[in-house]
Amino acid sequence: MTQRQVLQAFEQYQRSRTQFVQTVAELATRPQNIETLQHAGVVSLLRPLLLDGVPTIQQTAALALGRLANHSDDLAEAVVKGGILPQLVYSLAEQNRFYKKAAAFVLRAVAKHSPELAQAVVDCGALDALVLCLEEFDPGVKEAAAWALGYIARHNAELSLSVVEAGAVPLLVLCVQEPEIAVRRIAASSLSDISKHSPELAQTVVDTGAIAYLAQMILNPDAKLKRQVFSALSQISKHSVDLAEMVVEAEVFPAALACLKDPDEYVRKNVATLMREIAKHTPELSQMVVNCGGVAAVIDYLGDSRANVRLPGIMMLGYVAAHRENLAMAVIVSRGVSQLAICLVEEPEDHIKAATVWAFGQIGRHTPEHARAVASANVLPKLLDLYMDPGSSEDLQAKSKRALKGILQKCTHLPALEPLLCDAPSNILKHVACQFSKILPHDSQARRLFVTSGGLKKVQEIEAEAGSALQEHINSINNCFPAEIVRYYSPGYSETLLEKVEKYQPA
Fold first, then answer.
1. By CB neighbour count within 10 A (0-12 exposed, 13-18 middle, 19+ buried), where does 449 fall?
2. Does residue 3 register a pLDDT over 70?
3. Pick the residue with more confidence: 104 or 73?
4. CA-to-CA distance for 166 and 179, rounded, in angstroms?
5. In the structure, how many helices (H) and strands (E) does the chain have?
6. Which of 26, 196, 377, 458 can pair with 235 through a Cys bridge, CB separation 3.0 to 4.6 Å?
7. DSSP secondary structure of 125-159
8. N-term to C-term CA, the chain
9. Average pLDDT in the 160-177 region?
């Protein structure tokens, strides 16, 4: 064989390898091809090409493996079992920026599926190599490394701690300050993933000065960046009063309220989530939210949102109202009750209904004035329906019962209570009857209305066990009226009168 033939054969071999990895990488972008590629054993065929002498072949092979691993946990496990990860980690420190991006993509694609696969990435020494990539000059390498670190950290506190101990947090905070918007997005997302597991991990992020840099970006025009910024601030705030106060002290309010009207629904949802996480801690933090116009802004937000996007706003109102009477009144004055009533009617999902019902309970349980505001919105029959509906989830039934009980024990608005006399079971009826037994003895006008509206007749139709609390309350109600009136409205009294008519002998 001549030298020319040898060169031709070598060139043909290189072209074939190049064509193979490019074809696999292209096929791996379409889900319908994945199973065929898997059965063909393509992972084991790509592995030796990661050490190919031609850089483009190495990079394309890594890209193909990343796309395959990204598709399913089975393929991600095949990459792990194929011994590919140590090879990638070694190459991260040695190869060019294009290969580093592809290798970090593979590590991210493997780590995303489960804590076990993420641990496999950690066990092969990937964290130190990825942290070094955060110091690279190329923004694409930084972005790929930050993304992989975030996917490792998001699973649990142990993996998140591994990322922290590798020294990633200070470098991620530096990445948040980069001019490239994509790097800032992913760095903020990774800080959010690290912060969410425990107060200690969130404190580690705070100690690097992350809050100040995140707060500077809340009015950035890029929606995807704002999503991650508000997510990170929420994850920091949720753990403790101190952490929530540090976020507030960074002056995120009232500027953040403007983002409740952002066109991007995930931005709006994450702002509402941040407000919820801050308001839940103390009356003082809730008062701060109220003072900056947060309650009115969230009520408007509920009117503009649907489904799960509404959920954090509903819960935020509940947390604010739970703390103190004046805070619950702030929700009422801002027309929060009517907006929550709309949510209760419009939302089909039980978990959203349950949150709404819980919020009503927090608003109405303080004083008769609070209870009247809820009852006047015709909410009590809806709560009763949800409690009695066998199709309601256990959580929805439990929250409906608790809310009803809390509101009824304070409610003195009798017209709102009367409809419940017909349909409520005895465990709810006793609270309704108790309120009537407290009010009727002292209010002659209420007694008159109770008779003319049919309330007294409904009470006589209730079947209560002798000696029960319900029966005692019925007796107290009956004692507010002359005996002949009570007899007149008792079941069977009309038949008794007719019998008397029949037996009566005129003189």
1. middle
2. no
3. 104
4. 25
5. 35, 0
6. 196
7. THHHHHHHHTT-S-HHHHHHHHHHHHHHHTS-HHH
8. 144
9. 93
Q: Are 130 and 171 in contact (CB under 8 A)?
A: no
Q: Give the Cα separation of 389 and 371 in Å (integer).
A: 23
Higher local confidence (pLDDT), 499 or 90? 90
Nearest one of 110, 106, 115 to 72, comparing CA atoms = 110
Beta-carbon count within 10 A of 479 CB: 12
Determine whether 361 is exposed, middle or buried from the number of CB atoms within 10 Å of its CB (0-12, 13-18, 19+).
buried
Q: CA 346, CA 353: separation in Å to the nearest integer?
A: 9
Q: Please say if the pLDDT value at position 229 is more than 80.
A: yes
Contact status, residue 443 vs residue 404, Cβ threshold 8 Å: no
Q: What is the DSSP string of 35-88?
A: HHHHHTTHHHHHGGGGG-SSHHHHHHHHHHHHHHHHH-HHHHHHHHHTTHHHHH
Q: Is 160 helix (H, G, I), strand (E, B) or coil?
A: helix
DSSP tag of 377? T
Residue 483, phi then psi, degrees to nearest 5? -60, -40
Q: 18-54: b or e for each residue (b if 16 or more CB lie within 10 Å)? A: bebbbebbebbeeeebbeebbeeebbeebbebbebee
Q: What is the DSSP letter of 95?
A: S
3-state secondary structure 315-348: HHHHHHHHHCHHHHHHHHHCCHHHHHHHHHHHCC
Give the separation between CA 22 and CA 31, rounded to whole angstroms.
17
